[in-house]
Design goal:
mainly alpha, 0% strand, globular, 69% helix
């Protein structure tokens, strides 16, 4: 139990900016196992967004409440996954060889492709949340963050880590995921869907996983696997696909 608590706090420290006990660090042995709690971290992050939305909706317009909920989740994670998505946009947009793509993704500077990509995906997130029934927005935020992180862990499980350098803190968390770890991540990823009390909501799993297959095929073709930035990109794309699918389910099926 003590080891699992240590692993959880390692995941919390790595994937968010939430303060953790001082005895927690980025030790590779714990960081390697931290991905199994990726979806649980998503519940916490989504919960912060949901609470922010709920509180803000009493004093602000719906539009501002949604924006503040997005700000809260981004602030909580330090834009960790948004940064990965932007790096992938820059790398695959401007690179034509494996080495060039990896070098561009490693660059801390934000390029044209990354700027356009992150602006567009944030705009789509906001627009999709704006189209969601107000009562369900907190549930959508919690589920979107948890389930998209589970989808990202499936990339770690199915595709090898391709960076051959040891200077990346993300390397232990982005490789060697076991089946049991995947199941744990899946449990925490899917469980928030029960908040909707409607079986049709589980249809979101299909387009979300298809979005992972789409990106994974691109990663496999160009760099032969995945990196931490690739997992972040899958998380971001599957999250926005979740929001869009919920609006479609609500309009045509619910």
């Amino acid at each position: 139990m003590k080891e699992e608590i240590h692993i959880f706090f390692t995941a919390l420290q790595f994937f968010t900016r939430i303060p953790c006990p001082k005895w927690i660090d980025h030790h590779p042995a714990y960081l390697q196992k931290s991905s199994k709690y990726f979806s649980l971290i998503g519940i916490l992050v989504g919960g912060i967004g949901a609470i922010t939305f709920y509180a803000a909706s009493y004093i602000c317009s719906l539009e501002i409440a949604i924006l503040l909920s997005m700000v809260a989740t981004i602030y909580t994670t330090g834009a960790f996954h948004e940064d990965g998505f932007a790096d992938v946009c820059d790398g695959f947009g401007g690179g034509w060889t494996k080495n060039k793509i990896l070098v561009i993704m490693k660059d801390s500077r934000l390029g044209t492709y990354g700027t356009i990509g992150i602006l567009l995906i944030l705009a789509v997130k906001y627009s999709a949340l704006r189209e969601t029934e107000v009562f369900y927005i907190p549930f959508v935020l919690i589920s979107g963050h948890s389930l998209s992180r589970f989808i990202a862990t499936t990339l770690i499980f199915t595709h090898p880590y391709v960076r051959d350098t040891d200077d990346s803190k993300a390397k232990p968390a982005a490789k060697n995921m076991s089946l049991s770890m995947l199941f744990i991540s899946g449990f925490f990823g899917v469980i928030p869907l029960l908040l909707f009390k409607n079986f049709w909501i589980f249809l979101v799993l299909i387009p979300m996983y298809l979005s992972k297959i789409f990106l994974a095929a691109k990663f496999e073709r160009w760099i032969g696997g995945q990196t931490g930035d690739c997992a972040g990109a899958v998380q971001q794309l599957s999250e926005v696909v979740f929001y869009l699918t919920v609006t479609i389910i609500w309009k045509y099926i619910w």
